[in-house]
Predict the 3D structure of the following.
Amino acid sequence: MAGDGSPQTPSGNCRVLLVDDAPFAFRFLGSMLEEAGLGHQLEWKSGFEDGLEALRTGRFDVCLLDYQLGERSGLDFLRAAVAAGLRTPIVMLTGQGHRDVDMEALAAGAADYLVKGEFSGAMLDRVLRYAVERRRVTDALRDSEQRYALAVEGANDGLWDWQVPEGRIYLSKRWKEVLGFAEGELPSALASWFERVHPEDVDSLQYELDRHTHGKTPHLEHEHRLKHKDGSWRYVLVRGKGVVGPDGKAVRLAGSLTDVTTARNHDALTKLPNRVMFLDRLEYLFRRLRRDPDFGFAVLFIDLDRFKNVNDSLGHAAGDALLVDIARRLEQCVRGVDIVARLGGDEFTVVLDAAREPDGAVRVAQRIIDELGQPFTVEGRQVFTGASIGIALAAPSSDPFALLRDADTAMYRAKAEGKGRYAMFDAAMRERALKVLAVESGLRKAVDEKRLEIVYQPVLRVADRSLAGFEALVRWRGDDGRLIAPGDFIPIAEETALVALVDMYVLQTVCAQLGGWASRGLLGGRAFVSVNASRRHFAQVGFAAQVGAALATHGVPFGCLKLEVTESVTTDAGPQAQAECEALARLGVDLVVDDFGVGASSIASLQQFSFKGLKVDRSFVRHLDGSDKGRALVRATVELARALGLSETAEGVETEAQHHALLALGCEFAQGYLYARPLPLAEAEAWLRAGRAP
Ligand code: C2E
Ligand code: MG
Ligand code: MG
């Protein structure tokens, strides 16, 4: 072969070793080759040992061997050469009528034979060249086969080789070992493979096989589950390639089988079971639970508090190190039969085997909270994190996904109640979760289909009951035609990004309305419309720009749009909120604090965020009727507003008594059922035209 000192080609000249004890044979063959004009080089050794010695040098491409070597036979020589692992092809020279010797020689490994006196120079030449070429080809094949087998074995893969038309398959020892079988225990048969495939994977495997055998894919590659001897499922990756027959279909497929169960089932970082294995385990436990009603188990869903801080401030390597430490601590909090898994990110789960009562699960949850509350040392620094845990107990009617979702829901509740706690899932939570889902999908659709409506509640000047403006309030017309109040969907929409969608819809509609009123000359008295804006908007940059675009698009006069926000804007929204507020002020959009007095009010924030007004919450206005205390509260608020140069609006005025109290206090604006309910557009326009109640 190339590079190993035997560079012959099929047409090239060969270096031939003749091993024959008769000197005339050398002369005879030499002249035969010469006469035929062939350039083969012939060397001669007469003895058995000399011959073997010469062969061992590897200098020869082919050996001609007489079957009679003095005391010993050519067959002995042949066998000795083969036994010594010498690969030079050997052609036997036999006498006439020695067919049995010829056959024996071939069986012993001779490349070919020539019957003395019956061959020409041309025939000798052909036999020599063929012998050399055949050996070259078989060596190459053997090498490549061995190379492949070694590679596959080194990778610990199983081998398979399938003769498609005959339906025969070869499965290697390692192939069977992957499934827990010894060589003799599992027949090399198609059924040994295909009847062990997981029912859910059969179709996709068949599909990939079909595609490959019809020449649609260059390689076969498929991952599926096979049933192990012990009944568990192993994940295997099958790779292969087909030999295509004349009709373009594969006649033979061969390839490897790799056990990828560990990689599939484990988290590479913490070495804990991953989501796949966790769900497998739950599947198993549910089967057990359905068989045995006395059995029970629980899932804890653990979310780390403040993990993001560590990742952001110390970097991902530190974050990874912390996750590994956390994994080890979690393992110490549970028993051997329980499973700790990492679902991804900073989410871990625990399956508590045989936990029937909530008490046991709660104890473990508390232990985990205590453990993870202790500081960690990461890269030489002390790091504090903590955990919020949701607990769900398995019921026979449930399933792995539902149970995990329940634990997740409970975890969110624990987080919402203040971190570092656990919460047990209950039916009310499920109902709430279902409602959130229903609202989310329904509201999204309603926005798309423009089934959100806006009503306008007049805001009056207390002094003369003239119209100052309106508050725009959203309504959702449900599928059944009924109006749904914002209290039933805004809080839920606020949990997701959906509220932004709703608010932008309201904002656009109101701006279009204001533009229309302006062009019809209805805004003469500088009537305004105030729109409620979720604090979520202020957490993102660009809200003011969006508002500005809406004002410009619809030609809204300066100062006609106001925004109502709750005070939480000042505490929740982060540093960019202030910049957004200032940008809005430049657009002539006043910010008004809604529901003033209900949240944790901070006078400092009122100034910092350049609010222009406050709306006194209905709960205070209600007290105006009776107690002096209620009156004192409203008075204080009105005075505060005045001192800070803010306008004040009383919300929810329902009685004449309340109105007169506000009048006496000098409150500027008021809105409430006493004057008007939130009105449909046509009625609001009638108010606008009249400048007061029509
Ligand atoms: P809010 O901004 O404090 O709006 C005032 C609420 O009080 C309105 O309820 C209004 O109908 C009601 N109201 C007005 N006068 C009286 C009265 O005399 N007596 C009583 N009992 N209630 C009165 P509504 O329309 O159900 O809205 C509830 C809340 O939903 C609003 O409170 C606001 O926070 C929110 N909201 C409404 N529309 C939107 C919107 O487009 N976007 C956002 N983000 N929130 C909105
Ligand atoms: Mg409001
Ligand atoms: Mg309010």
Remarks:
- DSSP finds 25 helices and 28 strands in the chain.
- The first helix runs from residue 23 to 35.
- Residues 221 and 239 are 5 Å apart (CA to CA).
- The two ends are 107 Å apart (CA to CA).
